[in-house]
Amino acid sequence: MEERPKIKLELTTADKIFEIIGWLLTISLWGLTITNYANLPDTIPTHYNGAGQADGFGGRATILTLPLIATVLFVGMTILNKFHHIFNYPTNITQDNALRQYTNATRMIRYLKLIIVVIFGLIAFKTIQNANGQANELGIWFLPMTLGLIFIPLIYFVVKSLKATK
Q: By C-alpha distance, which of 21, 123, 112 is closest to 68?
């Protein structure tokens, strides 16, 4: 592997806002889960099919896996974002394009980790509603929305990265 330039990126105001919102949503996800835990029945939905219908059930403690996984992914991606020079890029990284490529890639990770917390938060919220009889599924909209929230920006950032080489 070629030796890539190591550049310390300065966060813009928008980057800082995304980080703060991400941390606040992660904390809120834990708050939502913990405050509703005691009111959950012994058996809750643990899995949903592509149509958003519950098709797996387990003990109420399984609700804690949602904020746990979201937190591990969020923190892991936050740490990973500090090592932008080791990411896979669709182009060669040079001294001339490193700043643009690194900035684009770290913004993509920042956006994706925020979306991951939002998605896990929605799943937790809907699971709590389902378990308490206030709803009976995630909804048919959930899978397409999730795929769109992940892949549309992913495509945008990859295209932006390819254009930044010209």
A: 123
